[in-house]
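To: structure desk
From: M.T.
Subject: fold request, one chain
Message: Could you run this one when you get a chance? Sequence is below, nothing fancy, just the single chain.
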Amino acid sequence: MSPTDLAFVRSEFDIFAPKPVQLAVQDTKVVHYKPIASVDQSDLEFLIPAYYDTHIDPNIKLFVRGKLTKADGSALDATDHTAGVNNFLHSLFSQCTIILNGVTITQSGEPL
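Reply: Done. Structure tokens follow.
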């Protein structure tokens, strides 16, 4: 075998050749998850099951719907003026922790 014959190795035997990667997105869908515990508690906990054939986009969005009331819980009057503040969700939540399979991935803020 001459040295020029070694340059032509069949692709199935070339272990150092780059492997093909699927770069196209076949399908996307939005899935809504609700908290697994009562919202009256101090913690909001979500259970997002893992699927072997899906990829979860790390840009997870949290949709919050609430109701503004007076301090005693009664409804606001038409003459009551309210306004939001900058970084409203930062004022609403004091800490966010992401746990995957029992391992803390990220933790921000200090609990009050």
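Reply (cont.): Strands lie at 96-100, 103-108. Let me know if you need anything else for the meeting.
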